[in-house]
Amino acid sequence: MAFAIPKENYAGKVREIVIGKGDKAVKIGGYDSMPLCTFEGTWPNKPVVAMEVYDVAPELNAQGWPPATFEAFKDVINDPGAWAKKCLEYGADLICVQLAGTDPNAQNKSAEEAIEVVKKVKEAVGDIPLIIWGSNNLEKDQEVLPAIMEAFPNENWLFGPAEEGNYKKITASAIGYGHLVAGKSSIDVNLAKQLNILIENLGLSLDKVVMDPTTASLGYGIEYTYSVMERISLAALAQNDDKMQNPFINDLAKEAWKTREAMLTVEEEPTYGEQNTRGILMESITAIDLIAAGSSILIMRNPTAVKVIKELINELYS
Amino acid sequence: MGLTGIQIFKLLPKKNCKECGQPTCLAFAMQLAQGKTELSKCPYVSDEAKAKLAEASEPPIRGVVIGTGDEQYKIGEELVLYRHDKTFFNPPLIGVLFKDTEDDATIDARLKNFNEVSFERVGYILKAHLAVVKNESGDAGKFTALLQKIKDNTKKPIMAMSDDVAALEQAAGILKGTKGVLYAATEENYEKLVDIAKANELSLVLKAPIEKVAELTPKIVEKGFKDIILDTEARDAKTMFQHNTFVRRLALKKKDKAYGFPTCNLIYEMTDDEIKEATIAALAIAKYGGIIVISDCKPEVILPLAIQRLNIYTDPQRPMVVEQGIYPINEPDENSPVIVTTNFALTYFIVAAAIEASRVPTWLVIMDVEGMSVLTAWSAGKFVADAIAPFIKKVGIADKIKHRKIIIPGYVAQISGELQEELGEDWEVVIGTREAADIPAFLKEYVAKNQ
Amino acid sequence: MSKIIASAAIRGAHKIVERVENKIKEAIDQYGPDKEVAYPNTAYYLPIIYGILGRKVEKLGDMPPIIEYCKQLLPEVPAEDLWIPYLGPALDAGMATLFAYDMEEALKYVDPDKCPYLPGGTEWIDPASDNIWLGAADDVIMRKRGVEFVDGSAPGFAAVVGAPPDVETAVKLAKEMQEKYLYVFMASDHNGVNMAEQLKEAGVQLGWDTRLVPFGKDTSAAIHALGFATRAAMSFGGAKPGDYRKVLLYNKNRIFAFVLALGTVTDEWYAAAAGAINYGFPTIADSDIPEILPYGVCTYEHVVSNVPHDKIVSKAIEVRGLKIVIKKVDVPVSYGPAFEGERIGKDAMRIEMGGPKAPAFEFCEMKDLDEIEDNKIEVIGKEIDEYERGVTIPFAIWVQVAGRKFQKDFEPIIERQFHHLINQAEGVLHIGQRDILWMRISDKAYEAGFKFKHIGQILHDKLHQEFGAIIDKVQVKIYTEEEKVKELLEKARAVYHERDNRLAGMKDEEVDTFYSCTLCQSFAPNHVCVITPERPGLCGAYNMLDCKAAYEINPTGPNQPLPKGEVVDPVKGRWEKIDEFIYTASHNAVEYACAYSIMDNPMTSCGCFEAIAVVLPMCNAIMVVDRDYTGDTPCGMRFSTLAGTVGGGIQTPGFVGISKLYILSKKFISAEGGLKRLAWLPKALKEFLVENGLQKRCEEEGVPDLVDKIATEEDCTTEEELYEWMQKVGHPALEMEPLM
After folding, report:
1. Which pLDDT score is estimated for B15?
2. In this structure, how many other beta carbons lie within 10 angstroms of the beta carbon of residue B103?
3. I need a surface site. Which of B48, B335, B365, C410 has the fewest CB within 10 A?
4. For the structural domain made of C3-114, what CATH number should be given?
């Protein structure tokens, strides 16, 4: 008897979303099977990797960046434009401008300063689409992100995270200024759906929305993110729930690189072994889990991790 | 799907004899339905019922036991495709490759790592589990010598790997009594190898193209041998994912017994890049790998991989917990603030990370509430004033600080008054933030105000 | 529609169209048909014409065809003796007016030297400047401000035409609207006076930043308010130019705007008002003109007249159905969840209300919108500062709420919120509910200036904030005189009683809609609660009315209305649409559930259940054990073991998680015979049920002595013992059909 591949039938399909415009626009989503299951569905767009450019230079220390990552960027950390170009050299599909410095608990940088950073990045990378990621401070993000949208109207960039507490301002501005929104809900299928509905109710088409289910790192709750993404994907594909048919974005580097496992030096924890490999694996394993769970955009940091993940994406979706 | 408790109950003798250890047949039936006890404990069950129940309770994927004593593991016996549907039960074994072409010094060093690299995390030990000894040289003597050496120097189970049946037969003799693994039976040699494995009480990897598996495993089972592990010859990440998925789906959804066995993935054959190898291994852990063989066991690789194994195989309905106690963060002293929260691992991790990020030296006091988050524990009556107060006094935080202030999560602000009363006048209860993300700002302000 | 208004509007429209036609002719004569005409910096041309008709006016020569179109739209002025339906023609006349105004205003920009307006893009008006008129907002302003309308930080705008009688009233009105975060768009005059100039005279800062926006002196300048709205519909609502239906509906449903007509309503105003009605924007007038009350195009009334100035803003808000934005609770002490748990001991107490020593209660009552005044807070009797320190006084909190969507059934739900709302004030302690109210106010709060009236303020502010979806007005009366409190208490008690009976009287058969609760899916992924009048949620926290209110408050939340559809099985409790819902909402994990059965596909249990019902096969009966009882039970499993067995959102025949009060429902496992099956309860639970009417229910079931036949742990804790007990007392379950 011939071997028959045990295929699943899916009733639904995830929306195809375009970020940016023109030749360099990046497409995600559009798939109609569970992640990696190319044998039973079409994945017109592979997951993409967005590399981070920060608005404030990281430091090489226990609270900042470890050597593995710092070395790769040390010449460009004070120049967002050069940094972004470097990311492209490392293989980034798009650039994620991380506005961690705008956090009132960090440097409390102003919206104007953030706009300057974005401007430098844009000038450096041209039409490569940008993801603009806030500091996760509800109040500040709803001030800074709309200001950037206003300063760069109709670029069709992706802005996030928009949460239940601030999605209105961010979504309204995205509508007015022609951008996309990443809605972030806290590891719950129904909350994710509810946020999509709320965003749509405000007037933004779901063709302009990606979902951030709240991303945890390996060792720090990855299994929650992993399972909620699988559940949302099944709702979207198997049950054809059209309010869940949006691709995922995962802001993972920040999480992976603040773990003890990535940050402790050999001196601090000799039993943990060599620090570079350990940190890179914290990032690359988090990333592969998220790919297996259905991520479409991975926000990553370390060039070696990016290289391996890009290779694997190409192999897995070949 | 198995039978419900009531369906099982109907097949039981309904005597409430208590001889099974359960007070009622219904309670016994519920335990059976959840796979927490065995039918053999019921002395009065009829043969007819036994047959029906055995059939219903036979797992769709064979459980294969490997190793002995503290190093005994079971793989397989999985019931779901997605962990959220129930849980993944038996985590895969991380296997480490040893070749008989390596020099003694290398072997010794790597064997030392293999035995010693181990980490403790939330009560679990993270490590590699299986030594995979490969007959790379083609020389049976070298192979068995290495096998013997490793056997003599580890308590962990061993998988003996060779193309040479004769070499494997010798290996089986060495491994007898260890519940190790033989690699590998093929279409050509399986009859012989099954006999060897059976005679030496070892499990056996069947190496065959995925479409051949359906043909071969029934023949092996017919010979009275069931401890089969499948290597479908996938040698790249994509094929591995697909084959593992096919095997799992065929066993669970198509009820195809021929595919109802755990899998074996030789990751070291898929790449020479250390990072890529471990990353593919992680994918194998998430996606249905049973034995996952990598080339080495450096601590920096084993640590993240073993965490992956722990995370993916955490029961989604039974949260991970951390140990009750006092956790110093950022080197606190007698004037540092004290934050109290629950022992749900995620709560702990997120709060600890937020405190770390704040750079404010702080005592984090974790209370055992059976792994519930703050609000859940509160509503279940476990994180409430008359439980917290005695805990605070008992845990010994008072010996570490000069002040008597404790910060409780904002979500349980409503207990502050009662907690204050329970703790007595020496203590002051401070209400913290609702979200961990707000802890850094809170702590900075708190410290500034209290200086 | 009133014939007088219709006639006036149509007359006005004729006049306007004729005037604008002449102006266009003059302009073409002067500049030629190819002369460009545009508002500053906009991609939307003349926005009303572009948005509604999809036509671009780019040069003067584009205008005459539009005027021709206006003329076609214009109906005949109705003859005095003719009686025809008015609304349609008047609305057409209104649209023609808007198109004409759009062109009339655009003509002002043709010659920059003669343009009466400040440069396009001006947001802030220099108080020293003589010219305060902004004219059309450019796209930059429209986007920036439009965002506020979409995200709700500006609830809407008032298009003010004319002027109030004096400067003082103008300032008051402006301030009132500013406090409610409304934009005030000003145009036109009444007897030569306009509101913007009144405000300037009073030294009030004008401009977009203060939300007081002077558009222009002419009535035609009011068109910029609608131009703004039309562009918003295209920019934020995704309406394509020419998709007039979408443009108008977007405004009706999302831009909460209204027209305030201050002064004599001229024919021109009528015509413009008719235009605004097309957008769903009603007109509120201070003068005595005919009203148009029935609902139709606008959400509620269309024209409301003769409203006094001190009421006109709140009336407008009510008529437009606008939700009030409250940003901070206005009390002199800190307010927030952090203070919810604080205790106030005797030593720190300024005053005590109610408790064991004095009568006190709280009460929520629904009123009609025009019966109460929002934010009116009265203290009837002495205020806090008129009492000695440390006394205990009688107290009543009588809250009246009104809302277009409010229902009588929501009263107790809102009332139950008082506890946690009041408790969040620092230095205020609130215990109990209904007529067992007990409150204390601390010395510290008193010293900070906290008064009784602030309790009313908290309730007003928070009820708007949290229940704005169903509450439009909140009025609070606080009573401290013993006589009055006692008198009102009797009234309140009667209502409490009536409420209890009302809920108890609801039958599953009598409603066609149940409610869902999927709140627990975060940890029990496939669990679905179907909540019916006779089967409350298994957690005990949600009855059907709670769900209904929760749905009104949060329409996208976990509680959704479920039309029952055809009855599939009346005995076991299955309905066609409910089956479908359970299947979908459980992510296809649960095919269907029987609401009234414990044996056949019972409802799933999440983990929050108050109690678990379990079959006892040997006894042919069931037992119920609740969370508080930790000892052995006749089924051989304790609560904790049972909870692990049935929880997690799976169906477990023979076991079902329930709320305690459900045991007293007539639908309590009625498929298997109901209450008569019940043979064992923990003692405390049995006492609780007896207090809540177990005896009566037993009588209804025809077994008046059943209460005594239900065993507790004091009688037995094993199935064998229970069986003996049942035989001894003659338990009815022994005679019933076999359970399995």
Report:
1. 86
2. 7
3. B48
4. 1.10.8.190
